[in-house]
Design brief:
6 helices, mainly alpha, 0% strand, elongated
């Protein structure tokens, strides 16, 4: 059985445009449309093994880009630090209500950062 690694969907969002058209199509059918290898083979006119090989190459390519560039890991760390900052801001607003307006402004600045 071919086990799906759902983290690959995030990698596809980052690096999918760097795959071949065939790899993008196979990957998209398999992970996003949840089609079986047999269904993809029927839709594309290639063998089930050819579909599997294309998806495996796409997965390896996506993981290779992530090892080299680390964009998904960087985003994950950024999101975690952003959550920590929001928690700290909330705590500071409770502790220092007189600084509430300034802390709201800082929160607004954090909120304006697109992730």
């Amino acid at each position: 059985m071919f086990v799906k690694d759902l983290r690959l969907i995030m990698l596809f969002d980052f690096y999918g445009e760097l795959l071949t058209e065939s790899q993008k199509t196979m990957f998209d059918y398999y992970y996003n449309d949840d089609l079986s290898l047999a269904e993809i083979a029927e839709n594309t006119g290639i063998t089930r093994q050819g579909v599997r090989d294309s998806i495996k190459r796409a997965e390896e390519t996506l993981q290779g880009y992530e090892r080299k560039l680390g964009l998904a890991d960087k985003l994950s760390r950024l999101e975690q630090k952003s959550e920590e900052a929001e928690t700290l801001l909330h705590s500071l607003k409770t502790k220092y209500p007189e600084a509430s307006a300034d802390l709201d402004h800082v929160a607004e600045l954090f909120g304006s950062i697109s992730l």
